[in-house]
Design brief:
This protein has a single domain, classed as Growth Hormone, Chain: A, CATH 1.20.1250. It is mostly helical. It is about 75% helix and about 0% strand. The protein starts with 15 loop residues before the first helix and ends in a 7-residue tail after the last helix.
Length: about 450
């Protein structure tokens, strides 16, 4: 008697259709990390913080020729004037540490109000001094705003996708450049020209404030996550902790970002002026480059965030920064339509390098003074940018050409790339408390 046949067992090997479904799910998970609803809310709201900062920064660059003519700024004084405006970011160091004392959410709300108010005042500035003053203060608030938005997101997301999250935040925030480019294309029909473009900064205020109210406080700042009560007790405590507890890390990131920004400040600001004066582009064509080419360039935020999560910040950052230097040098040399490709490549690498350095600023320091540390990064970035513009003005006096002066400054990026590789530790994939243990500050 033959044994009864057993029923067939289910196949252990998935079908082609099942494998395809799994592959699609894996791809989606890699592109869109499994955030909780709270993390998605923090990500979405914090991303809006950098949007208007980028709108204002792009507007000053795009409309530089028109602002210069409207306020009567002499060519020889242009670099120094732009340098003074950028120094406003230094003042953000007095505001961003407040987030370590009073909370990320509260300071974020106040900074958006201050930034919007002073940007609108810039529209009514009757002369150069008042315009520079209003822009100086706008930069102070916007720098603190962007700092706190970076910190609150870094403290919420998981270590494995922190680079991706910060890169995506940077990419979406920099779309403010696209809005500025669209507005700049209509500078001839918008009432009051460049002044009208600055006045537009008032419009989003009614939407931004309600959005801030649904933003939760950072978990790492909440008392339940701080059982040892390490929260700073005074306004000066975060700065004291920053300078006393991790002096080597602070000096390393400050020098790397400062030196790199000396090139970035001049290269980025003068592109629209260069295209209009040397390549004879119209404002509309400049805007189209910023809108369509910029959409490609800002992918550098996302790519570098994802790649640095996998291969490490210490390798990926220097590579992109070095490439940025080479592309910028050619950008201000070439006389053909290849300038479009060079600009997109430069922007890609520029945003990639910024993403890695921003991640470092949030990762290398403990919660008790993380906002102060991120604020120091802004001081380094925009202080270096201000000095770079000042140096550009001095080199212009010697060389008689803005473009030759800018090519000389691109050397700073090569130095910055080398220093990042030599001085920085690896932080990718590590929890924040492992990278920088909590420090008690009184």
């Amino acid at each position: 008697m033959s044994p009864q046949a057993s029923p067939p067992l289910p196949s252990a090997t998935p079908s082609n259709g099942e494998r395809a479904k799994r592959a699609r799910r894996l791809l989606i998970a890699r592109q869109f990390p499994p955030f909780s609803s709270r993390q998605w809310r923090v990500f979405a709201i914090s991303t809006t913080a950098g949007f208007f900062d980028n709108y204002d920064s792009a507007l000053l660059s795009l409309a530089l020729k028109q602002i210069q003519r409207g306020l009567g700024i002499a060519e020889a004084r242009l670099g120094a004037t732009l340098s003074l405006i950028r120094l406003g970011y230094l003042a953000s160091l007095t505001l961003s540490p407040l987030a370590d004392v009073f909370g990320r959410r509260q300071i974020l709300l106040y900074t958006i109000v201050g930034y919007t108010m002073f940007t609108a005042i810039s529209a009514a500035a009757p002369h150069t001094a008042s315009f520079v003053g209003a822009q100086f203060l706008a930069r102070a608030f916007s720098g603190a705003e962007a700092t706190v938005s970076l910190v609150i997101l870094a403290e919420e997301v998981d270590a494995a996708v922190r680079g991706w999250a910060l890169g995506m935040q940077g990419a979406l925030s920099i779309s403010g450049y696209g809005l500025a480019a669209v507005a700049f294309a209509m500078i001839g029909i918008i009432p009051f020209g460049w002044r009208g473009l600055y006045a537009l900064a008032l419009l989003p205020l009614a939407l931004i404030i309600p959005l801030r109210r649904i933003l939760p406080e950072s978990r790492r700042f909440e008392p339940t996550h701080d059982p040892q009560n390490l929260r700073p007790k005074s306004m000066l405590a975060p700065l004291h902790g920053l300078f006393s507890s991790y002096p080597k890390r602070l000096s390393s990131i400050f020098v790397v970002v400062f030196v790199g920004a000396m090139a970035g400040g001049a290269v980025g600001f003068f592109v629209p002026k260069y295209l209009q004066e040397v390549h004879h582009w119209s404002p509309g064509r400049v805007s189209s480059l910023y809108i369509f080419g910029g959409a490609v360039g800002i992918l550098g935020n996302i790519v570098s965030g994802r790649v640095s999560d996998r291969f490490g910040r210490r390798i990926v950052g220097p590579v992109f920064i070095a490439m940025e230097a080479l592309l910028a040098y050619q950008l201000y040399t070439i006389a053909t339509e290849a300038i479009v490709v060079l600009w997109m490549g430069w922007l890609f690498c520029d945003q990639a390098g910024i993403t890695v350095s921003s991640a470092y600023s949030a990762e290398l320091f403990p919660t008790s003074f993380r906002a102060a540390a991120a604020g120091a990064l802004y001081v380094a970035r925009y202080g270096g940018g201000a000095l770079g513009l000042l140096c550009e003005g001095m080199l212009y006096g010697i060389m008689g050409s803005h473009w030759v002066a800018i090519r000389i400054l691109t050397i700073c990026w090569l130095l910055s790339a080398g220093l990042m590789y030599l001085l920085f530790p690896e932080t990718a994939g590590r929890e924040l408390e492992e990278i920088a243990p909590p420090v008690r500050e009184s």
